[in-house]
Amino acid sequence: MTLPAASPLCHDRRWINEAIRIIEADYNRSADTHLVPVAMPAFPGVHLYLKDESSHPTGSLKHRLARSLFLYALCNGRIGPGMTIVEASSGSTAVSEAYFARMLGLPFVAVVPRGTAEAKIDAIAFHGGRSHFVDRPGDAYGEAERLARELGGVYLDQFTYAERATDWRGNNNIAESIYAQMAREPHPVPAWIVCGAGTGGTSATIGRFVRYRRHATRLCVADPAGSVFHRHWADRSITALDRCDSRIEGIGRARVERSFLPEIVDEMIAITDAQSIAATRMLSMRLGRRCGGSTGTNLWAVARIAERMAAAGETGSIVSILCDDGNRYASTYFDDGWVAASGFDLRASETELAARLGW
Fold first, then answer.
1. From CA 278, how far away is CA 275, in angstroms rounded?
2. Residue 84 has what DSSP assignment?
3. What is the CATH classification number for the domain harbouring 120?
4. Burial class (CB in 10 A: 0-12, 13-18, 19+), 358
5. For 300-327, how does the pLDDT look when each residue is reduced to its tens digit (9 = 90+)?
6. What pTM does this model have?
7. Helix, strand, coil: what percent of the chain each, to 5?
8. Which residues have a Cβ under 8 Å from the Cβ of 345 and sit 6 or more positions away?
9. Same domain for 123 and 52
């Protein structure tokens, strides 16, 4: 599809109109993602559902965010014809943004940590983007800003704009989709929704939507034990760590991102990397296909909440998110050699989770 020729003005309205039409047409061709029930035999009164975001065209929850970021930047006059799009990312957001940049005929550069899963780097390249590596994850922000200036482009900055780019009142955001799909279930209003936090945009959207629609649902954010988010939630004076000591890609940060809104989170649960990886592998076996590490983080938090609900004699539903396609982690979380070399012993975590869930 060809965009109209650009005028000398960067913010050419004809170009912007056509860019928005192209993105909206792509959305119109897409189906919603599935809500997958997952049995937890240990808790027969608690029903678990996973919102399968891996079925998006770019394979992850970040497809929603990338679309919103592009539309937000276009409507705010930040993107014009020929501009290079730059993003700091641990991989999945960059994959999705490369998809939309190519759709608009724009160059794309992802600033990613050097240890990012190779499959994500390959996916960025597949969609026409290129990767620019940094040795320390915390350096990605400043390097993305520098590159955008040098290239005369725009740094989309998911960490700042994620919470405001998505229309939290509706417009088929992930929360609205979840409640629509739950309408005919035994417990249509979830007792809890569990998600992770990378930018904080998903938890912000869900938390705001729950309040706007006056639902009784509570929001739990599952966070890697080495991340700052759960520390900041408990003590607002803690805003940064020297580093995020976690191998779970896509969630957890060393600094509190601007899009993370702790005030609308009801609970945070810190999960170790070994627990996350064990849960990822176990759930993948139950589903018959692989899911990513952040989904394992979510599942472990779900198990704790379900256990607590059952102990209190409560029944209800819990909805969490299957964040991305686990094939991206074939060389890490699903590789026994990588797991051993990284110092993880998963046996205790696997045994404990199997006992908790009745698996």
1. 5
2. P
3. 3.40.50.1100
4. exposed
5. 999 999 999 999 999 999 999 999 999 9
6. 0.93
7. 45, 15, 40
8. 274
9. no
